[in-house]
Amino acid sequence: MAEDQHTGDQGADILAQLLRTQTDMAKAFLGQLLPGMTVTEGEAADAAHWTEIGQRLQQMWLAFQAEQAQASAAAPAGPVAYFSDPGRWLAAAQGWYRRMPLADAATQKRLWEDGLALWESVLGQYGIGPRAGEAQADGPALPRADRRFADPRWRAQPLFAVIHQTYLMLAEQLLAMVDTVEETEPTRKQQLRFATQLLVDALSPSNFPLTNPLVIERAIETKGESLVKGMEHLIADLRRGQLTHTDPAAFRLGENIAVTPGKVVHETPLYQLIQYSPATETVLATPLVVFPPWINRFYILDLNENNSFIRWAVAQGITVFVVSWKSADSSMAGVTMEDYVLGGMVDAIDTVRDLLDVPSVNTIGYCVGGTTLAVTLAWLAANDQADKVNSATFFTAQVDFSRAGELRLLTDDQMLQLIDTLSAESGYLDGRYMAATFNMLRGRDLIWSYVVN
Fold first, then answer.
1. pTM of the model
2. Which one in 31, 200, 346, 399 has a CA-CA gap of 20 to 30 Å to 254?
3. Cα–Cα distance between 156 and 164 in angstroms, integer?
């Protein structure tokens, strides 16, 4: 977002032109190409109304651009985009793409022939073209399926059927081409596939208003207000520097989240220890100590009455303790893994043993809390203290990182060097970087579905 004023003006002109073009295209779509989805002239086809909607969207975007330009002048943007920008992956993969057969005449001829055959087949299902006799009485039988296009409206009109079926065919062939690239290092081949998948997902017709029948229908129903509301959400997320999956103001601690009764019984600079109130007349002799991730709030396991592991465990007669880690800030620049093991987990285990006068505790480690718990167990065993832990359970926790899946693609030398730089500047890693990283690993679910909504 650190662009000069000239670039910002250019972007505004492009956006204005795009909005005008989209208005004209929408009228053409709605008036001529979508039988069954048309509305009265006095409603969606009102050019003045849709022009006003376009102007509102344009004004909102221009105001945001001006705001960002002013903020950038005061504080130049940092390397946030490195973590979340798919362009980083595509730029790194340019050399690989040159070795893919995209420019090969034979490949282009095959793609054209495959596309033509697909169009004829799809349109034939609607009684259109040379294969019109293939139409089915019970509806079209399309060759490819994908849950992004599961809604019947993607098949109700031949236009949208052709659009999404063509996309699926091209995506399938592009990903297949990755396997033809000669690359001796498996990780680099995996990075190319990951980058290609990011690109393919980003280009899905479901992500664009004029190629998504659900978005068009909703825009007609709301007379364009759904587009305005969507722009408001987009700008709010851009200001926040993070794609939001829920309304941040919707949750209130102790009311509709973290509702299981309990209290803090121990506190250190690194964590608070919460003990939950018993819900049964008698309790089991051995208590349970839960270690959530460092980067999550403790109430990830206590969301509400119907979705709370902690409430369930208390109802089983278990005395439950949960560690609530301090949120990372600059004061934690010197905190190391040793602090989390000895000053965090071992300290919490000993505190619970002393409070209840018990020889050992049961433990749960969740995500990186589980990874740290494995290290803690090893330290206890090496120091003849293994009997302090009666049992250990791991929730979605990784110990052997030699099989870390796509996470390994995001931890190359360049990324690690950037993390070191960021840590040196602030002493901790902004949680938005982590969120962007995990979002990219499941882009369809955690990025694009929210963009569409």
1. 0.69
2. 346
3. 12
